[in-house]
Task: inverse folding
């Protein structure tokens, strides 16, 4: 199921391609790798959203759960004025690639690379300004329940793939889709968060911790 009208999606993609990006060559290389290896990454539309949110929020600590080889983390780090983005992944190879890309971007001083269980790693950090969820979709709710006390009031949670190819709107969802729906509903029902779900790409849920 297409989340957006394909013509609208193509138009947005066209705008992304004509927009000036300082690191165009390296980003294109990362995108080509994802395409050739069927590696899931956010696209530029979501990347630009992340960049803008980061500029507005001016965070000192961003923690990513599920960083892959650093594509989404680039947009956080590029927009940050000081501070750190913590990249996590269970595969050392992915983070080794991320470190290499960040060196080429000139952003190594804004990043830490942690191999292992993303949720367990994130528990080490307090006063998180932005928590980005892009790990296994069945673990989104576990992640927020485990880490919500590590977020200060006013911090943001950004979760990718929260429309899951439109499957969240279907009856009788499969187990993975049901878990995503459970997470979405928790974030909207909770008095601790104010949430919106943006139908961009595969759905981006953005929540602010209000208490």
Result:
């Amino acid at each position: 199921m297409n989340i957006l009208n394909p013509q609208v999606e193509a138009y947005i993609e066209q705008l992304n391609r004509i927009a000036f990006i300082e690191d165009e060559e390296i980003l294109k290389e990362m995108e080509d790798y994802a395409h050739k290896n069927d590696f899931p990454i956010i696209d530029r539309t979501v990347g630009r959203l992340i960049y803008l949110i980061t500029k507005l929020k001016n965070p000192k600590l961003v923690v990513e759960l599920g960083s892959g080889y650093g594509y989404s983390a680039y947009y956080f780090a590029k927009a940050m004025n000081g501070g750190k983005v913590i990249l996590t992944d269970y595969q050392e190879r992915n983070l080794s690639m991320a470190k290499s890309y960040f060196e080429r971007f000139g952003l190594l001083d804004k990043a830490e690379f942690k191999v292992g269980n993303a949720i367990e790693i994130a528990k080490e950090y307090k006063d998180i300004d932005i928590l980005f969820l892009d790990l296994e979709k069945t673990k989104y709710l576990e992640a927020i329940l485990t880490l919500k006390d590590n977020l200060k009031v006013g911090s943001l949670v950004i979760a990718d793939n929260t429309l899951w190819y439109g499957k969240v709107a279907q009856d009788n969802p499969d187990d993975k889709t049901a878990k995503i729906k459970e997470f979405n509903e928790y974030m909207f029902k909770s008095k601790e968060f104010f949430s919106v779900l943006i139908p961009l790409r595969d759905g981006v849920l953005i929540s602010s911790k209000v208490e």
User: Anything to note?
Assistant: Helices lie at 6-18, 24-37, 44-57, 71-79, 92-105, 118-122, 140-147, 175-189. The chain is about 45% helix and 20% strand. Residues 102 and 155 are 25 Å apart (CA to CA). The beta strands are 61-65, 84-89, 111-115, 128-133, 151-160, 193-198, 204-209.
